[in-house]
Records
---
Amino acid sequence: MSQIQLSGIAKSYNEQFVLHPITLTVEPGEILVVLGPSGCGKSTLLGIVAGLVEPSRGQVLFNGRSLAGVPAERRGIPMVFQDHLLFPGMTIAENIAFGLRARGVPRAERDDRVAAVLAAIQLASFGSRYPSELSGGQKQRVALARAIVLRPPLMLLDEPFSSLDSMLRREMRDLVLAMRREYGFSAIIVTHDPQEALELADRVAVMRAGRVEQVGTPEDIYFRPCNAFVARFLGPANIIASESGDLCVRPEAVQLALTGEGVTAHIVEKRFSGPRVEIVMETKVGHLSAIGPAHAYRGLEIGTHVYASWREQDAVFLRGT
Amino acid sequence: MKPRLVHFVLMVPALLLFAGLFGGGVVLALVRALGIYPAYGMVVPTLDFFVRATGSSWFLPSLALTARVATVSTIAAVMAGTGVAVGAALWIRPSWRLRIALQLPLYLPHLIVANMVLVVFSQSGLLPRLLFAFGWISEMSDAPPLIYDEQGFGIALGLALKEAPFVAVLVFPFAASVVSTYGRVARTLGARAPTLLLRIVLPMTWPAIATAAVITFAYGFSSFEIPYVLGRTYPRTLSNVAYDLYTSAEPMDRPEAMAMGIVIVLINAVLAVAYFASSRRYETLLHHMRVGQAA
Amino acid sequence: MNKMGAAVVSLILLVLAGPLLPLMLWSVANRWPWPRLLPETYSSRSWEFVLDRDSGFVIGLGWSFAIAAAVTVIALLVSLPIARVLGLYRFRGKSVIEVLVLLPLLMPAFVAAMGLHETFIHWGLTDTVSGVILIQLVPTMPYMVRTLSTGFTLIGTRLEDQARTLGAGSLRIAMSVTLPRLAHAMVAGSTFVFLASLGDYLLTVLVGGDAVPTLPLVLFPYIAAGDRPLAAVGSLLLALCPLATVLALESALANFSSMRANQEAKG
């Protein structure tokens, strides 16, 4: 049985639908990432699972039992927010112990569990400090710990790393995966960063304007996007129109050669970004991008005529819009 | 940011008003209280009037009454106002209608509030009539003398009714802000209403509550209209005494009235110090709120 | 809204509407002896008396309105500059000025009124409307300054600075950028000042005396004398103004805010 089942969840404010009926599942131990641009309703969806927002339609089932009428504080599903919201008047240890104390866990056990999770996030000696003394990354780690210490079966994370720089974000991603290995929770993570989604998720649900466009494993949605929106949201994509429909080819699958078969193109731009180079070309089917390591494109400059080709299995027909 | 000269110039009209009207007024009152009355040929400062004001037999009972009603009404107003503000923040969805409802009693003039208390709580008022209808009392004189009583209960009640909305209005924005941010996190961590209240909302809105309490006490201490309508002939609150002295036919009562006024000002000055001490934390709270709004 | 919310709302309504009900009953009561819960006979003569021009109530309301409006406008104009400086800038001596500005809030204004009385006599300000307006500024301006300066702090200067880099002049910036965003604080401050002035008794009677018969001054003797019906009518009259003003202003503000929010969402 799925751990979380959202069936027909919809939310409207004053006749305006923010979420159209959505059906999703999360399996035990799985990380589902809800990915989408700002305003697509992903945070509202999370709020409904948390119990902070009431759905206008549909129901949420937790291990088969409906959560209708169960307030957030009784669901046992902790949530980590983008602004860490550590309680300023309490020490780090007290912050982490908060949920345990609310549950009536006796002091000795509380202290043990807090110490254990502090060590796991590598802030072992920080217990008696106050949130104002910590850096942004440290605070977010504590926010995570505050939820993990409850050993919840499911955790919710709302853009938890958006306010951190890219290096910290990578560290936090590793931390979440490590914690999941150690404590075995499932999680619904909301983000607008496709890279985060691809790296963290077991499955991704891509949302747009209150609807789920596609659900699948990272490879699924990356290599077999169902429409142009999903394709482009996950990364640069070449969308080529043809009579049989729109074709999507990832730039890293495009091969360039000075001779041979393929689409004729001439290079209009060459962009260097460290480990890879992007070549933008003009062809009779429109602009085309190719991405590869720098050495693969040595000798290719702006104005060069090339032939672009790709393997058939790397091209996908987009079913929808 | 540092202001330029033009900014200082722009402040002048307001500063003139404050310094001139208020500062000047108090200084003049002090001068008169010290017995300097050129028109009557009195030019030597003296503390006689202060002695007369504070030494007479009615001073201490008046002081006690004033302090008592201020304290009681402040406690009641803070508890009620905070209760309503926090309750509204926790359980009612914010809307402009809610804000208005909280503010309305605030805007009722003192006279009206005094009259309302009179109409409901006096011995021939609505409350005794209800008690009679329930059979709990049989004569008008059996009704508890809530107004015109020695303890000043009626005054305290009137003051509390006027002040509680002020506390609620002051505390509500902070309570609402805390509930919508930290409150949400706490709820997902399993905190039920009592925990939310005691460990999150109250501690974090405490500076606002403290500031409101100080202002409320200062206000209750120097309030005039409500004690005037709801109080007895004796003892009267300090502000009422000062007014009576000032408007009496005896010209030499005037300096005594001023002395009384200065005494009230001094006591309020102590409270002002307390206010400024507590308001520093209030300002930090305001700053956090602003940052929270921006985020 | 759940049960607790309903309870809180009921409590608020009880405290608000509760006392008004007996006042309304008294205003239409002819005979209402103890221990009846409702008046024995009703009559409209109290209302007729009050609304009659000769009774002084309606004229008093007019006086009160006019004075309150004047006080509000003056307070607003004088407070805006200083509130701006206090809200946005830091400078040496700022705390001193802040204390000076806030002090009248905590101090009994009537002491200043007593002290100023003779000076006012000298300047011919006693028994005049101008005198009353001046003295009413004392307890009300601190509140206006405080509300406005908090408003300034909350809105910051980002938008104004941007407008300045686009070449807009100071006055233009003030009118089209700053003031609309300050609307909320201005309404809050103005409402308080207006209503504080409307309901004031002590300062008006000290400085204006019988020459400036605002509604509270007309009403007071009836309350003191225990004339319940007339006092009730006068009280309702005096109470209705704040209620109506606040409702009108706040709903206008709510519409204004949502209008601007829509504009900003589109823009």
---
Amino acid sequence: MTERYRNTYHVAVIGAGIGGLSAAHTLAGQGLDIVLIDENPHMGGQFLRQPARPDQDDICGIFLGSGVDILHPAQVLGIFPDRRIWIMAGPETGAAAGPGTRLMELQANILVFATGAREQYLPFTGWTLPGVMSLGAAQILMKSHGVLPGACTAIAGTSPLMMALAHDLLKNRGQVAVLADGHSLLWKLGQLPFFARHGSRLAQGARYAARILRHRVRVLHSHSIQEAQGQERVSGVVFARTGPDGRFLPGTDRFHPVDSLAVGHGFVPNIELPVQAGCRVTYNPDLGGWAAAVTVNMETSVKGIYAVGETTGIGGAEQSRIQGKIAGMAILEQLARIHPRQPRWDRFMKTRHQLYVRADECRSYGTLLNRMCRVPATAYGLIPDDTVICRCENITMLTIKQAVQNGFTSWSSLKKATRCGMGRCQARICGPIIEKILQALTGTEPETTGPPVSRAPVKNLPVRLLMPPAGNPGQVSLPQLFEHPGPRHSEILYLRLSNKA
Amino acid sequence: MRSSPHILIIGGGVIGTSIACHLAVQGAKVTLVEAKDLASGSSGACDGLVFLQSKKPGVHLQMAMESLKQFTTLQNQLPVPVEFIQTGGLVTIETPEEYRIMKTYVQDQQAIGLDVHLLDRDQVLKKEPGLSGRIMGAAYSPLDARINPIHLTLGFALAARKHHARILTRTPVTEILVKHNRITGVVTSRGPIHADLVVNAAGAAAGKVSRMAGIQMPVIPRRGQIAVTHAGPPVLHHCLISAGYIAAKYNPELARTAGQGISMEQTETGNLLLGSTREFVGFDTGNTLGAIQKIIADAAARLPALASFQIIRTFAGLRPWTPDGLPILGPVSALDGFVMAAGHEGDGIALSAVTGELMADFLLDRKPAINLECFSPDRFDLRTTDPLRPTDPETWRPPVQAAPQGRIR
Amino acid sequence: MTQNLRIPCFARGKQITIRVNEIPVTAYEGDTVHAALTAAGIYPLRQTGSGEARGAFCGMGLCYECLVTVNHIPDQRACMTLVQDGMEIRTHD
């Protein structure tokens, strides 16, 4: 049954990636009750990925004795009025070791959404084959778990993450069969001047490129995936040259045998929870699509609800760190933990203004980043008819085209007509794709049909958790759970690291 | 009436599209305007139960039986597969008191010739082995069915368009034009549209639309929340509602003691739809944490096989409630050319086909097969100050809900 | 596909054994089920209603393509579940 125990906090930070950690860190040690919630098996988000050893959750250590409770792994299912947060806490399969998963509610005066981003894709025939994965998935396997995504990997798309992945694969003695970039070399070189202000990123790119060249990886420019082939698993990929509109040029297709294929075409902000909380979102391709609208202090359109990092627009790790800090400082001010009569006020304001400047720089880099990832708009209209668009419900491009011809030209009506986006992932993967398909086929801009809707539960919720426990061992109260000793990582349900003496 | 009047329908839900379809097939000049998308209101936010057992014996049930007949032919005629299946329906009984109530209820239905009978626990579990053994019995009718309400709405709309009806989505009506107490057309976001007859099929918003024409119509939104599971293996073969659901529908007093009941169906795709609530909260289509939890827990208590399922989303729709539980169908005598077709509450899907047919007959000056008199908008005396006569659909709450909550327990 | 995909010299947790479709597979504490299965060369994890094979795609808990049965609990995301010694995993349920 749902945990009826209700706990209240001054601040709840949702997401323990760089943005969330930075916000929590700024808020820590000021006498506030803070809860930091993260759903991933290992905290740190996508950027702070580190070898996942059970004795090595340094992140918890940062907050030792600082008034920050860490709830992990814990999935926020929904945000309800009065800032009630509905949470599924604990690994669903962890029942053998710990007290098991349960539902619970928290309440916080102030929310900070640091929900990060996900990748987006240009679908191709065969992208549902096992062994075809996102660039992020391949990266996680290597960086967190020391596992190569495959023995022979092709990398494709338009994302800057491709170079990073190729570099890491090679560094770990993996084999990169092909690196196929959708952009032309000329176009990419043309972007270089824009990066003048972002020298460190250029240097990083150069380092990646050097390793890729040294290993004589076959690098294709202006090439996209025509098809991934295989039976139970990908066994090869056909690349072909594309024109500026994304159309494949006849006679340029070539087969490459591989056993894994990593793809990505940029990123989109995770805005489901902010949308549920009533925060305004705006559509801007330079932000990666729909993003939470925020003030300079990272406050959303709802007072007391903040958003930081990729949630406010794709901009990279540094942006997340800066924005987390800005939000943390704004909250300290809002809760009167810092005020003009204090001696540290002047320094506070000075730091803040420096951070504003840095945030602007990060934003301009973010714009470049999103432009680098962009796929020609027309390419989404050229997806072959038999290609699956909605992976959950197996809805093909043909079905979508037919519905569009029948007049279902808005996202919501298309969903009703075809069931696309109605499956388990709730359009996390196909949503951004369908927006672009509609744009290509009908010319409708996503902002004209409104932002995606979001309702609880944002992730699948096992019905079992709402049933009385078999054999009824009685409910465990939240404080009891916190006291549960967790000698091994897999058993740690909740880490209570604060000492509110 | 002129030989070929232009009929304008407001509302692209199942009722509006059904009327448009029935009119267009007969060659009438029809325009349907919808503020958002087809089935973007309650028709796209409801379950697909076509229950005969839940209808009040009388003309209500007569209409439902007629509608059911139509669905069997419609499924071959509409250009979209509407997934109409006569699964048979169970009204589960959990307490001796419910058993007593359902016994008389079933006898009344049998008296007018409905194929329905009571099953004991073993018979129920034989039909539906996934159900909990704590169920005492059920009323069963082989006629009860389910349908895909979204596909039905889209099917009606596409069929109407095939027969030259004009369907304008994302076209909100901003004004209703009246001259000398006669409707002359509407103003929409795309400009004015002339019409001889305007049909208000705006569902839960029908009260709002009526007000544009200066008419008070007691249609109040009543929210129903639904939870959806992932598409899983078959665990529920019949449409199912609990006896408490029927109670909640007709007897608010009973609903307070027995809860709001539960409805369940497993769709063609394998998703289970779990419902539902009946709340007067204005036009708020949000989901509440308490309701979601209760719906899921209540459903799982009756169908333990749900334990291995996962909830993938929730939604809420606004049923168009009327004070006497009957839809409002027919002309408004206070305003020439203004016709009502709304207020079906939770029966809109089930009654859509017959409503479309009857309304089309009426609009084309033919005698409808069922006398629409008892559904007339004029049955509400708009001058009285009857407490049951809602004035503002945003804020109106039924008097019965004003009683202190939690008194019983 | 018997090649070892584990990167040498990578700091890992304690070596443990899980069972995948009844067959013992070596894993390390801190691995997700996804990582352990990939290292063992197991890519197809579930099948669609029409029998098509699917495997881990997003790798971060969003796409629900990597669903496996873990300790008899169906439909668990392999990418979000950490291995435990003796864990029983079934694919294609």
